[in-house]
Amino acid sequence: MKIICIGRNYLEHIRELDNTDRLPGAPQFFMKPDTALLRNNDPFYVPSFSRQLDYETELVVRICRVGRSVEERFARRFYTEVGLGIDFTARDLQREVIANGLPWEICKAFDRSAAVSPTFVPLAELGGDIQKLHFEMSLNGQVRQRGDTAMMIFGVDRIISYVSQFVTLKMGDLLFTGTPVGVGPVHPGDHLTATLEGRTLLDFDIR
Ligand code: MG
User: Fold this and answer.
1) How many whole angstroms from 55 Cα to the centroid of ligand 1?
2) Which residues pair with 6 in a beta bridge?
3) How far, in Å, is the centroid of ligand 1 from the Cα of 91?
4) Is domain 3-205 classified as CATH 2.40.50.140?
5) Who surrounds ion ligand 1 at CB < 5 A?
6) Count of beta carbons in the 10 Å neighbourhood of residue 192
7) Which of 2, 23, 157, 206 could bridge 190 with an S-S bond, Cβ 3.0-4.6 Å?
8) Which letter does DSSP use for residue 4 in this model?
9) Residue 116 CA to ligand 1 centre (angstroms)
């Protein structure tokens, strides 16, 4: 399986990251290897190579069939369940690689950088519209991020159509759909929880 992540998919997050209103012309994606998975609400250990390790809370879509060059109108067939994830990002290293035009792997693809909820919820139980979901993340009991999938710049079906032109989607692949405003650092001793439509899916320690 592979982990496909979308960057810059919520306007307010682009503003906090780049201080600009310039929208991407197409979905921007990068990938994490399977060794990046952090499952079962296991603790996240802050790696020693970063001085600013940020959380990014994201809706995660589990792909349920094989497809390439999927037409947007058929993209809905490629998922039935959604969960939550944290796209852990070494922000200091990301600034360096962006400034130098280098690949993103060292800041995005490191071990355990993709926390994924142990539970995925059938979309049908959440109302059936993937672009009408609300999620929230709290650190130490304080809400840090609130996301509404209606605010995505590129909706899930558009992302699936776009990405599958380049990369074949396979059953079990995970699609991280971008983070809303409010990203920030984690520190050892923090506790992270996140809810999707009021259901707690992420609940783990930072060490
Ligand atoms: Mg992200």
Assistant:
1) 8
2) 29
3) 11
4) no
5) 56, 87, 179
6) 22
7) 206
8) E
9) 13
The alpha carbon of 144 and the centre of ligand 1 are apart by a number of angstroms equal to 15
| Domain ranges for the chain | 3-205
60: CA distance to ligand 1 center in Å? 11
And the tokens for 147?
A: 């996301």
In total, the chain counts a number of residues equal to 207
- Contact (Cβ atoms closer than 8 angstroms) between residue 37 and residue 3: yes
Using CA atoms, how far residue 37 sits from 75, 85, 118, in Å, is 25, 10, 11
For 44-96, what is each residue's pLDDT tens digit? 999 999 999 999 999 999 999 999 999 999 999 999 999 999 999 999 999 99
Q: What would the two tokens of residue 31 be?
A: 């990938």
H or E segment and range at residue 17: helix 11-18
For 84-134, write each residue's pLDDT tens digit.
Answer: 999 999 999 999 999 999 999 999 999 999 999 999 999 999 999 999 999
| Cα 103 from chain centre | 18
CA of 61 to the centre of ligand 1 (A): 14
Q: How far is the CA of 177 from the centre of ligand 1 (A)?
A: 7
**How far, in Å, from the CA of 125 to the mean position of ligand 1?**
25
| Distance from Cα 89 to the centre of ligand 1, integer Å | 8
Is-above-0.90 flag for pTM?
yes
Q: How far apart are CA 144 and CA 6, in angstroms?
A: 20
Cα separation, 174 vs 206, whole angstroms? 23
Query: Which of 190, 187, 31, 51 is closest to 113 using CA atoms?
Result: 31
